[in-house]
């Protein structure tokens, strides 16, 4: 163990506060404060418990939702019998093992990474896991949050702990500020293009700098959410007044004196002066403009004002081959201005950009405008409570008046597990986080964009920014 | 979990980089509630292409997959590991793996072997020249052997020991039940409890 006096990073502080057991040559055993569960990665874990006669150690630190596989056109009927079985299995498992669940139709149901923060379950300094790689979202609060596989889900259910190999830390120092009309999504897409999809591999990353400090919690969640897209184990942002203001008053937030004590502790969760990161990278956003992807991984991106790149221009062999394959799949010709790329579908939603602020930003662009004839636009709120809040503000009317579909909450076209999918050859502008081949439906082609770009693209029918509409 | 010590079999070259978990098994195949039967979803989008390497009868029965860099990036779905295992793979060789995939593979007993791209390229060439080439994956000695040559691969002591002994992770952790209970006594009062 290191001496007390050594300056520490935020990640080390949270890690150290959760070490149950540490032994030479073995991974540290970390305590898990919150375990989020959904229908897709949990059935085999609950089965494993049953087979070995184990129980859920701390059901009260565990919470489930239905999101990946649920329909978004109604709340009652899951027409695909295999999907229905999976949802029913989750319900049975939760009921058998005493785990709280927010099922379809419940006011808190929604994408697991939207649900945690909105309930106030996501708090600074916690360890949070879920059988889902975008668990990194919760790092926006200064929590150490990461995705796990089903074997690990079973491990956490049974023991409330996880063995973890040693921590490696990285700082992303963001220099400059976001220009008006440029968003957290543009920032993180530009970062991934700069560092590559493997750039953060194995590291817990801390996003720092004035632009991050000025960002809303929603924006911070968008940035942390995409940590996994450049290979990082987790993304973190030091908690501050913005964080505290977001958490305060939510259902599970501490109250009264407990709040004061919690806040005092949370305030100490910042990287000490002089603390060393294993790696540091700098991201200069001074000249950043709206950013979109042209390829089949989130690191294949470019400013909206640029053109489809020529694979021949990539220095590395591997990048050249990857770009070539990506352009073939995406049916794009080098040199085509990205603004000339026509889309068939616009998807606004997901745990990256399906929160109220995202819907507001898109609605501001769509107000008084129409979605182009050639485009189908789906608006899928991140959770039932986001949906309700948006309806209270009349955002649903803005979307439907523009010709977009106003859906129920869930993952939807982010991963194309329910009927919301692209048809082969269809092209989308999507506010989600993955543009992998077939991610949104077999043969579908995805361009990752911000909510603002998504809305403008819906109006123009080609990739566009709000500024193009004037 | 089954013990993993030494495995010998034939290999199949997958000349692709950034094979993410959506490509290993698309989401529509994740609806099953069992750990078996995922082989039909493995590399589903590519399987309908007769030229796809797994469709080449010369590689039938291969149990070692040799892939390009950044294999298994993306989603946390352990179904990707199960699909490979259900299909018959015992080990995957690649210059670099997605972290969660690598962790899942180690838990489920599919050995992830990290070797330099140069070695992977040599292996691709050797396998393509002789699809029946025998490849030995030796966890005991941390070596991959093929074509009269051998390459050392890295794996941490703890994971190696667990695989060699076929130990259940949960059982190992529960040996420290007392430490867990002791830790729980000192947790801050404000940490949320679901009601
Ligand atoms: S919205 Fe997309 S990324 Fe987020 S949890 Fe659902 S499927 Fe995963």
Automatic annotation (TrEMBL), chain A:
Enzyme Commission number, as recorded: 4.2.1.33
Annotated catalysed reactions: (2R,3S)-3-isopropylmalate = (2S)-2-isopropylmalate
Family annotation (NCBIfam families): leuC (TIGR00170), PRK05478.1 (NF004016), PRK12466.1 (NF009116)
Protein's UniProt name: 3-isopropylmalate dehydratase large subunit
Function field: Catalyzes the isomerization between 2-isopropylmalate and 3-isopropylmalate, via the formation of 2-isopropylmaleate.
Organism taxonomic ancestry: Bacteria, Bacillati, Actinomycetota, Actinomycetes, Micromonosporales
Cofactor(s) needed by this chain: [4Fe-4S] cluster
Aconitase/3-isopropylmalate dehydratase large subunit alpha/beta/alpha domain span: 12-461
Subunit structure: Heterodimer of LeuC and LeuD.
Keyword terms: 4Fe-4S, Amino-acid biosynthesis, Branched-chain amino acid biosynthesis, Iron, Iron-sulfur, Leucine biosynthesis, Lyase, Metal-binding
Cofactor comment: Binds 1 [4Fe-4S] cluster per subunit.
HAMAP family reported in the protein's UniProt record: LeuC_type1
InterPro entries: 3-IsopropMal_deHydase_lsu, Acnase/IPM_dHydase_lsu_aba_1/3, Acoase/IPM_deHydtase_lsu_aba, Aconitase_4Fe-4S_BS, Aconitase_4Fe-4S_dom, IPM_dehydratase_rel_enz, IPMI_cat
Gene: leuC
Record-linked CDD domains: IPMI
Database matches in Gene3D superfamilies: Aconitase, domain 3 (3.30.499.10)
PANTHER family with a match to the protein in the record: 3-ISOPROPYLMALATE DEHYDRATASE (PTHR43822:SF9), HOMOACONITASE, MITOCHONDRIAL-RELATED (PTHR43822)
Sequence positions that bind [4Fe-4S] cluster: 351, 411, 414
GO BP annotation list: L-leucine biosynthetic process
Domain of life, source organism: Bacteria
EC class (word): lyase
SUPFAM superfamilies according to UniProt: Aconitase iron-sulfur domain
Pathway: Amino-acid biosynthesis; L-leucine biosynthesis; L-leucine from 3-methyl-2-oxobutanoate: step 2/4
Family recorded in the similarity comment: Belongs to the aconitase/IPM isomerase family. LeuC type 1 subfamily.
One matching Pfam family: Aconitase
Residue segments, region Disordered: 421-448
TrEMBL record, chain B:
Gene Ontology molecular function, alphabetical: 3-isopropylmalate dehydratase activity
Annotated InterPro entries: 3-IsopropMal_deHydase_ssu (IPR004431), Aconitase/3IPM_dehydase_swvl (IPR015928), AconitaseA/IPMdHydase_ssu_swvl (IPR000573), IPMI_Swivel (IPR033940), LeuD (IPR050075)
CC terms in the record's Gene Ontology section: 3-isopropylmalate dehydratase complex
Pathway listed: Amino-acid biosynthesis; L-leucine biosynthesis; L-leucine from 3-methyl-2-oxobutanoate: step 2/4
EC number: 4.2.1.33
Keyword presence, Lyase: yes
Presence of keyword Amino-acid biosynthesis: yes
GO biological process, one term: L-leucine biosynthetic process
Residues annotated as domain Aconitase A/isopropylmalate dehydratase small subunit swivel: 1-116
Reactions catalysed according to its record: (2R,3S)-3-isopropylmalate = (2S)-2-isopropylmalate
Keywords of this entry: Amino-acid biosynthesis, Branched-chain amino acid biosynthesis, Leucine biosynthesis, Lyase
CDD domains, A to Z: IPMI_Swivel
Top-level EC class as recorded in UniProt: lyase
Function: Catalyzes the isomerization between 2-isopropylmalate and 3-isopropylmalate, via the formation of 2-isopropylmaleate.
NCBIfam families: leuD, PRK01641.1
Quaternary organization: Heterodimer of LeuC and LeuD.
Recorded family membership: Belongs to the LeuD family. LeuD type 1 subfamily.
Name of the protein in its database record: 3-isopropylmalate dehydratase small subunit
